[in-house]
Design goal:
The protein is α/β, with parallel strands linked by helices. About 25% of the residues lie in helices and about 40% in strands. The longest helix has 13 residues. About 20% of the residues are buried. This is VOC domain-containing protein.
């Protein structure tokens, strides 16, 4: 199974590292201009200082406050975990996006991180019993 590394530009790397640590995530292999947030054994989010990110990008770096290029989704096991992680994000300075949604077999909440990147936290719900 291949691993997935999602690269995100951040304005203040230390602030971003503190934010994700406050959410309970661990890090792997940090450097002066980047840090790797371990999401799971096969998935990491690479936080790159904007100048470093720009060095890898073939086009201009998007401003997440003005446009959405990607929505990052974290899958949890149950609604309580969705609420817990979203609550931690908001307590750490994130902005909640929309209202909690329970529809189409899922429970979902969203937030924008400190740099404005959009995240969704969801879990799949068991089918309703008759």
């Amino acid at each position: 199974m291949p691993a997935l590394f999602v690269n995100l530009p951040v304005k203040d790397l230390d602030r971003a590292k503190t934010f994700f640590a406050d959410l309970g995530f661990e890090f792997f292999g940090m450097a002066d201009d980047m840090a790797s947030v371990v999401i799971s054994e096969q998935t990491q989010v690479m936080l790159l200082a904007e100048p470093t990110f720009a060095g890898y990008a073939r086009t201009a770096v998007a401003d997440p406050a003005k446009s959405t290029q990607v929505i990052l989704v974290l899958g949890m096991d149950d609604p309580a975990q969705v609420d817990e992680l979203t609550g931690k994000a908001v307590a750490a300075g994130a902005t909640e996006i929309g209202e909690p949604t329970r529809a189409q077999g899922r429970y979902q909440r969203g937030f924008a991180d400190l740099d404005g990147h959009q995240w969704s936290v969801l879990c799949l719900l068991p089918p309703e019993q008759p």
